[in-house]
Design goal:
- Residues 1-13 have a biased composition (Basic and acidic residues).
- The chain crosses the membrane at residues 32-51.
- InterPro entries: Vps62 (IPR009291).
- The protein is α+β, with helices and mostly antiparallel strands.
- The protein has five helices and 20 strands.
- A hairpin with a 2-residue loop joins strand 7 and strand 8 (204-206).
- 37% of the residues are buried.
- Residues 1-16 and 50-58 have low confidence and may be disordered.
Length: 385
């Protein structure tokens, strides 16, 4: 028969060495979470390995950067496509490359805020130059939005490039060549956006406008790129081809958020001073590696004759020439101060300004890599200010 002392020892032993039920449950949970954490880490490591080695492409853009995988063209210099710029859109961009024809479909032609009632119907990129018989030979014609810009019409947002850098269903680029003779060819890569969002200065957003044409230009000699131009607001910057950033052989252009000005580097850019690129100031553009756009995948091709200033369709000959010959503005006329959308100016600057002219007015027959203006043309050999 067990003594009381032995029973007490037995009970004490059970109490001291055997975990309580709640402690058992906690231990099991800890073990389960430990196993799950190790499994998760292992799975993430495998996914990362597969992604880095190209077996998974869900988070990586597979944009062609080599000549042997470039879009093939006929009746057009292939090297112009092979060396075409790739454009990094900013990570905060909200107004992406847009379909050029959609700009016509969502606007109506005005002169002095009055609609041209007998304009071609339907108005298309093919017959857009028919507007040149109105408003001072077309110069005073504005493609005016059918919807109030302050309601943020969806068509102004453009199209986000897909994983291959293509704006699906949207032709957002016009590639124009000007053969200058003796082996020299200037290739203009014109980028179209339905909306330009201006810079914010002291809490005032200034310089917004419907329609936005920006561009890079590459000067070729005997099929080889020599220099490259980056358009930026009223002017821009030029570099040697060797100096610019590249993906394989294709140069990189950084498009600023909202304004879409083109820069050779990512970061902050003050454009108060023409032909300068300072990282601080009052008029700041921002560029970064957000979404990579390949403008060649949905582009119209043109040949420009500098002698008679005429355009013809390049490639398969189907690009709408009327769009290039149109002399008017690709957006609304600047709203007066009496318009509730506009309001009072801020030190002489307005929130909304007039739409831009088209590619014909971008210095297609320039002498130097820079446009022919009063600003000195500097060909930089390093990226920077």
């Amino acid at each position: 028969m067990e003594t009381m002392h032995e029973l007490q020892l037995e009970k004490g032993s059970h109490h001291n060495n055997t975990p309580r039920p709640t402690e058992l449950a906690l231990t099991k949970r800890r073990n389960i979470w430990t196993v799950l954490c190790y499994q998760t880490i292992s799975l993430l490591a495998i996914i990362y390995f597969l992604w880095q080695h190209g077996f998974l492409t869900f988070a990586r853009q597979t944009v062609c950067t080599r000549a042997d995988c470039a879009l093939q063209v006929t009746n057009f210099p292939q090297y112009v496509i092979d060396y075409a710029p790739l454009v990094w859109l900013d990570e905060d961009e909200t107004y992406f490359p847009s379909d050029i024809s959609a700009q016509v479909e969502n606007t109506h032609p005005d002169v002095n805020f009055s609609t041209i009632v007998d304009a071609p119907d339907p108005l298309t990129l093919d017959n857009l130059d028919a507007l040149n018989k109105y408003g001072n030979k077309g110069f005073d014609v504005f493609l005016t939005s059918k919807l109030d810009v302050t309601t943020n019409p969806i068509w102004l947002e453009g199209v986000v490039p897909d994983s291959h850098g293509k704006t699906k269903g949207a032709s957002s680029c016009a590639i124009i060549i000007n053969d200058r003779g003796s082996g020299r060819v200037d290739a203009f890569y014109m980028y179209f956006y339905a909306y330009n969002q201006g810079n914010t200065v002291l809490f005032h957003e200034l310089g917004d406008h419907i329609g936005d044409w920006e561009h890079n230009m590459i000067r070729f000699q005997d099929g080889k790129p020599e220099t490259m131009w980056f358009s930026q607001h009223g002017n821009g910057q030029a570099f040697t081809y060797d100096a610019v950033e590249k993906e394989d052989i294709r140069p990189i252009s950084y498009s600023a958020a909202g304004s879409h000005a083109n820069y050779a580097i990512a970061g902050s850019h003050d454009h108060s001073i023409p032909d300068a690129n300072l990282p601080f100031g009052f008029l700041i553009d921002h560029t970064s590696q957000g979404v990579l756009w390949d403008p060649t995948l949905n582009a119209y091709l043109y040949v420009y004759n500098g002698t008679d200033r005429s355009f013809s369709a390049g490639g398969n000959g189907t690009s709408p020439v009327g769009a290039m010959n149109f002399k008017g503005q690709w957006g609304d006329q600047q709203y007066p101060e009496s318009d509730p959308k506009q309001g009072k100016p801020f030190f002489g600057f307005y929130k909304y300004v007039g739409g831009p002219t088209g590619p014909w007015n971008k210095g297609l027959n320039r002498t130097l890599t820079c446009p022919d203006n009063a600003i000195r043309c500097i060909i930089r050999t390093i990226r920077g200010p």
